[in-house]
Amino acid sequence: MIDTALFLLVDGLTNGLIYALLALSLVLVFTVTRVVNIAQGEYVMLGALTLADLLQGRMPGTLYLLIGGLALCILLDAGRWRRDWRGALLFATGLIAVAIAAALITRMALSLHFPVIAMMAVALLLVAPLGVLIYRFTVHPIPDASTIVFVIISVGVSMAVQGLGLLIWGASPYPVEPIAAGGLMAGPVFIPYQAIAIMVVALLSMGGLYLFSEHTLIGKALQASAMNRLGAQFCGIPVNLAGGLAFLLAAAFSALSGMLLAPLITANYEMGFMVGLKGFVGAAMGGLADYPLSLAGVMIVGGLESTSAYLASAYRDVLVFSLLIPILLWRNARQRVETR
Amino acid sequence: MTKLLEVSALTVGYGEAVALDAISFDVARGEFITFIGPNGAGKTTLLNSLMGVLRQKSGTVSFKGEDLGTLKPETRVARGIVIVPERRELFPQLSVEDHLRLGAFLRRREGRAILDAGLERIYALLPKLKERRRQLAGTLSGGEQQMVAVGRALMAEPQLLMLDEPSTGLAPRITEEIFEAIARLKADGMTAIIVEQNAHLAFSVADRGFVLEVGNVVASGAADELRQDPRVLAAYLGAGDRYRDA
Amino acid sequence: MPRRTLLALTASLIFLVAPWLLPPFHVGIFAYAGIYALAAIGLVLLLQAGQISLGQAAFMGLGAYGSALVARAYGIDSFFTLIFSIAATALVAALIGYITLRLRGHYLPLATLAYGIALASSFTAWHDVTGGASGLDKIPPLGLFGYALTDDRLYTQLIWIVVLLAVLGLSRLRNSRIGRAIATLESHDGMARSFGIDTTVLRIKVFVFSAVLAALAGGLYVHLLRFVSPSPFALLTSFKLLIMAVVGGPSSAIGGVVGALTLESAQWALQDLLARWGATGNLEVIVFGVILVVMLLKWPQGLSPALERLLPKAKPRRSDGTPLSARTLPADRAESLLELKGIGINFGGLQALADVNMQLKRGEFVGLIGPNGAGKTTLFAIISGLLRQSSGTVTLFGGKMPDSHSIVREGMARTFQHVQLVPTLSVIDNVALGAYWRTSSGFMRGLLALDDAENARVLASARAVLRRVGLEAEAELAAGSLPLGKQRIVEIARALLADPQILLLDEPAAGLRFQEKLLLVKILRQLNAEHVTILLVEHDMELVMGCVERLVVLDRGRVIAEGAPKDVQANPAVISAYLGGARDKAA
């Protein structure tokens, strides 16, 4: 009985922390840009599959996505050449430099057979900029669109990215090496090292985000843009860049979550979507705007998921997603009281 | 002497409506000018359009000889135009000191020492802010919030400071405190546009004034002359009778 | 016969004979396109009401499983099981709608996603009954009294008959009393309530009707395929339906059909192409995703407005009925219509209003003024029932203040500071909204076009009011296309159609030019002469002073003066409130 409980605790905590990185990403994106990003989970998939490729010595398809995206970015900027060719040239050169740097780093990583941790860093370098590109393509052109429009757009992004994942990697699952294989016995319960790695990496990255937003001016500026867009503009903060930064960080955190998760379940092109949605269930607890409450939310989701997997595994998703509705009702009611 | 700000035939509207109808004026360095008038006259619209929050329909605004055109608010801040907005637009979960440091966001490369000195100058001007430096803006009183907004704007070292209704919703004693600070800024050589409903207050610090009435300047002149001008009262309480027998 | 009707009939005929002209494989595609069109039309209706659903496919699933399981287990004619499953889905949708439709902003789409996934997952999870992921076969065909519809062409024809009926019904509904009300749901909740529309109930009705269309689609699907499994009702289908609605365009029911046909044919063409390249899997989703994003960025209205421009114009609707009977307003000026006693309200410790007393007598023309932050907006919100005071009492027509959506029945109508017209509706339809409470045709009567006579009376009354304010020529134009000055007059016309005893005007002259203001004043004077009681909040002092008989002046949440314009203009307290008195002089 006790070992079951302990097992569920470890399992729930691991799940919860993986979702926590997602919830963090969702809150970050929503507070700064007001986008409810249904596509956030796709970075989980991109992170995991990129890592799988790198660890198996293949050139990851993500690199081509990145290069294609940068090219499209230059193309969309074409209108600027006539007005301000210097700026446009600088911009294009910069993007080309980014593409070349990404390709070189990837090559180097592959030929030097980096260790898992270093490969994760390389994968992050490849996936995170995709967040900025998607911001540039979908949010930047219509900053004042309604929530519903952004929701629908992110549905489109999710479908397109998932489809691209299928195109690049096919439908078969990829095994991913854990950061550390094996595990230890804590009393009667076996704790895999990967679970410990997940806890360490997740906590470290959350701590990192906390330090960044509380103790750097850029972090404060990001918070300011989230709290009051106009006020931030009046301080001279370029809020568009703030939106891009939020998408960048969110893509990085989600990709990281995918890389931590993949060794547990193998990576495939559809793995991200559900993870992203479970992050939503947790983040909804804090109205998509409150970090500590979101953390509490994902821990509840993680725990509920472990328990229900144990008791009634077929109904796991039914339970988790049914939970979202009362959470939303509670948030909605609270928000109404606050606006009164 | 060249003018710092030159506005000519500025017309602004929301959709079809005209909120400002071909307004022209200029501001020289070191000058304090004020726009007064009842609400709905277009005072806030004027500042929002100078700040780039609202797009003008026609007319030009040039600052230090540069046409501001469609520059975004954050770019105008970089040029030296800074606003203390009517609704203050603070960050409720950030501390007073965070606000001041963010006010100097564009000066972030000037070095810690210079910025700290700037911070101390603000604290000297508005001592209440020093007491509250760690407090979150959302928990401050209305007057203290207004001071934060002023302090935040000053941290950007503006060349043109725009104050939008600094007295709105404040108790007379707090208003007095804020206007004392404004008067000291003037003594230090600041250039400013103050928009106020409270004409007496505005005239107490301004060199020149403009009276706005539903989007048009109906009177202008030295502050001391306007003080006695019956057109000011008429703008507020409607002396005309064009509608009486319509 | 009008050209538009002729065209519609020809198009319908083509749709109905198409199953006999197409090769067998394409008949199948055409059938599925019809099924998706039905569910997408439901989604279009939701979008028109400013709602969104990422779970529409789950209602298809309920309709499908409900009918399939019952028909398979009990051998009941599947025509009846289909009706049963639609009814059951409607009940579930009513419950879900009741719970979730109070959610605002980003919470609503998340909630639809949640029940969409929860329902779809339960089709898999409830293995014993549904057959789990592998599904159930041997589902009976659609049948009635022993006759079974097994011919695919006939079945396809039936599907398209249903689709065409749905399109016809919804375009009828759009021009009806309920259709006008639905158009307000997207972003004019407060306005809708103030004209007597119970928006909460209407939202649920729309939601249920949309789910019914989805359930019908699901039922038709499952008896065509004669096999049921969870995957067609999963999230991807919900997303595809959403793309159909967006691509076709939410502005009319035809959008659902256009979107479904476009997307289904694109899907088959793409899959064909991809198969030739040797690619496998649902790669067409890449294209769909990109189409969705690009459509929203570049053509958020979808394809149907472009289609609409190609078609001949619809003939004007009947507006020849006898105008609605209006109440006669007594000329007696002693009766107190509205009385405020000791009104106070706090916002987070800030006293916005304190001890406000005010009275409005029949036939009076009163102005409410005050400097910035005086509390006018707050007081106006209390008077119009959008805000509750924390202390004091409001007496309206001798009784207690009713709910915000019942005030108009009592005889008080208002205009809005920020014009609250539905920009896409015609001027006359916007004005007709004012008569919502005076008429009664409901959802079904609108769908079945049984409301023609009543609608003609409403439109006749609306036309009469428009004639009166000088806007008859603009009656059929989209309200959003009028200049602001005319829009403000349309707002007044709409309030007049509510047959009010008291007219509340919230800054009706803001942003108007002088000539427009003159016209406004003329209309207001005339109304007042006909014994309409008017309360006016306005910034243009010259205008206020020129037309009201009495003024109430607020400052810092209190009434500081009251009386005739001349006296108020000379009142030292008022002058000091506006210009700042000696107490405000800085040292």
Describe it.
The complex is a heterotrimer of chains A (340), B (246) and C (587). Chain A has 340 residues and is an all-alpha fold. Chain A has one domain. Chain A is built from 14 helices and 2 strands, in the order αααααααββααααααα. In chain A, strands 1-2 form a two-stranded antiparallel sheet. In chain A, strand 1 and strand 2 form a beta hairpin. The longest helix of chain A has 32 residues. Chain A starts with a helix and ends with a helix. With 246 residues, chain B is α/β, with parallel strands linked by helices. In chain B, 38% of the residues lie in helices and 27% in strands. Chain B contains 10 helices and 10 strands. In chain B, the strands form 2 sheets. A 6-stranded mixed sheet of chain B has the order 6-7-8-3-9-10, sandwiched between helices. Chain B has a 4-stranded antiparallel sheet with strand order 2-1-4-5, covered by helices on one side. In chain B, a hairpin with a 2-residue loop joins strand 9 and strand 10. In chain B, helix 3 packs parallel to helix 6. The longest helix of chain B is centred in the C-terminal third of the chain and has 16 residues. Chain C has 587 residues and is of the alpha/beta class. Chain C has 2 domains: 306 residues, ABC transporter involved in vitamin B12 uptake, BtuC (Orthogonal Bundle), CATH 1.10.3470; 251 residues, Rossmann fold (3-Layer(aba) Sandwich). Chain C is built from 24 helices and 12 strands. Chain C starts with a helix and ends in an 8-residue tail after the last helix. Chains in contact: A-B, A-C, B-C. The interface between A and C is large, with 47 and 49 residues.
Main attributes of the structure:
heterotrimer; B: 246 residues; 6-stranded mixed beta sheet; 4-stranded antiparallel beta sheet; 10 strands; 38% helix; C: 587 residues; alpha/beta; ABC transporter involved in vitamin B12 uptake, BtuC; Rossmann fold; 2 domains
